[in-house]
Amino acid sequence: MVAIILLTAFGIQTSQETKRIVSENLENYSRGSYDLLVRPEGARTNIEITLQTVEENYIGDGAGGISISEWESLKEHPEIEIAAPVASLGYFTSNTASISLPAFDYPARFEYRFWTSDGINEYPVSPSHGMYYFQLIDNQYQYAIDTYPDFSKEYNIFDTGLDISFPQSYYLLTAIDTESETLLTGIDFSELHRELTDQEKDNINMFSQFRGNAPVVPILQRENFQIPLSLEVTVERVDLSLNELYKKYGLSNNESIVYQLQFLEEKKRKEFDNDLLALKSLDLETYHIDLSKYQSPFDGQQLSLDQHFNIDLLAQGEGGTLYNDSGKYYTASKIDYALKDKKMYVDIVKEGSPPNYKVVKEAGSSYLNEGKAPFMIWQMGTFTAEEDSNSLTSSPLGIYSTNDVKTLDGTVVTPTVTPGSFIAAPTAGVTSLEAASLIKGDQPIDAIRIKLKNIAAYDDEAQKRIEGLATELSKKGYVVDIVAGSSFTSNNIIVEGIGEVTSPWTTLGVAQLLSGAWNLDTTLSISLFILFGVFWFLCHLGFERNRLDKENDILFYLGWQKRSIRVKNMTEQLILIFISIILSTCVALVLGYGTLAYIVIGSFLLVSVILLTVVFYMNTSQSNRSKSYRFFASIQYYKSLLVPTMLVLLLAACITQLQLSSIYALWDTSTVTTLGTFILNEGLYIRLLIVISTVLLSISVLIKAIQGITLARQDEFEMYHVIGWTEKMIKIHFLKEVLIWSTLSLAFGILLSTIVSILVDMSLVGVMIGAISSSIIYLTIVFVAVNFRKYR
Description:
The protein is of the alpha+beta class and 792 residues long.
């Protein structure tokens, strides 16, 4: 009895302790950098509505919908501490640089092409260009790099001499309010509003002359942000004698060949072109040069290659000319995710190099075509956005995340230099809200991230305040999501042309879901332990009453009154109960049980007295053996002993199945996100202790019940032995009986727990695991208890 009392008290106390640990962890770790995500009506995508998750960079490719005046009004709300707006403007380019090919001491032909990559496949982003290199003339009279286009390839007007221009790369640009964004993120954006230097003013004036005096859009570019770009160069040494070339075409020696060609007749120039095409190759080598780390999103870096094709950085003013064609930009649609069989699919929208997974539209205009530009991007400085170190909660800021998207074999998938990548692109630069209005119109803002005032922990009061403000803003027509209590998750996406990848997303409302799941689990555990304790004691008293039947008959024949016999029996049981309570209290003190355990022990005493009175005042008449039974005679005759045992087994199976089903439900709910996994790891060992306590209680009760039945039937077993049965025969006979009523009890127990599991919306997989496990556990216990007992 001491063990039963201690295990019951431990189980109830541990269940409550688990709830406390979960609540404290949720309060301490559930709140991220902001609480509410406010967006215009219609901003939720279908996949977001279905899965209750958002992409890490959900702001990218937004269409706007909130005006600056709305934001200014919203940030004055008395509940709001920070209201940080953000607007996605599109994919922009800025200063484009060049790279210089090496000057050799022999004539050669260059063929070159730029490539980008998504981490899996490589795609050409420029046509194959070519040029002939003749010589470098560098003396006191002349400096010239003699190169001539290879007209069998495409020609780039920005390529001059050995300088070849990078292809234009497009990067996501977003607009922010620097003050609120700094408060929200801790990032320093002050350089965005700095004064221009005199040199910058001169450069801007120079560029503006050819762009219709376009207004300047100041930006800060992100540091340490690169997109894959590489250069493939093939160098072919050709069989060409410059002296013979000079002689054949009547050119002056040691002067630029290309310069003199313009004075030849057209027929001679065509002959010259044909001669170049007919040149034999003496040697050929191909080089692959990774340029990714040398280029910033909006500020080109001039480079050069030495004769071994090593990269050198050139100082400002060296190399080819920077050009700025930033008035043309692109917008892109949201990714159209399709959900099939619990997996997301992304199809190619437009084939290309690289392919587009979004609908990409050209916007703005190029000064090269129009002679003017709607605006001009100018880089003011840089900012650094560090990855969030909090791996438990996720408050997706919508524009900064560079968390890896990976294939199943761990290969990192990257965005490409074009706007159509399936990866939700992080921002490569930020600008002001005023610039957003210039580019995007009167309602440029895609989202406002809101943090409430005076919230220290994500407790019940904080949840009510956050939910209250969310409801208020929803009534004004905004789409409002509660981001507090959200956490990271990984979604598997099957991408056409790439394969299956895992991508980081954010699951909304995780804290509320976890809190509900653990609260339900705690309520079930405590209720079941209380119920089991009551049933165990009820069965214990039933066994004791039946055990005393013979002794009571003897006392009655000796002249004792029934009332006196009952008082004697109850007094003995009360003494045992009090001794057990005292011993249990002492052991609980030694083991350091909490206050709740002593409350449970005290309650056990009160309930025991009530149950003792009820059981010993019940009618104790017993069937006599003269009555015949057609089926299961022994089971029907000893039903007064078997019914309590069957009830205990039924309840044990029910409790164990519910416990295991609940643990599976917690695992299934929690492991989807990092916060849930952390909470599960913190509380799982306690939860397993509760299951172990339940099983130990059940073992104790079942062994005691079977022992009571065998003692009550000792005369019957002895009679079987007298008429010639061996102990093995007796054991098999008894085991068959036990298997009948135990299987029946288990079946009803599992049916009952299954109904309860379905009512509380537990997973059917968890129900099956619980049913199979509890059946195996208790059938094994019953078999061992029967098989290893002596029957003589």
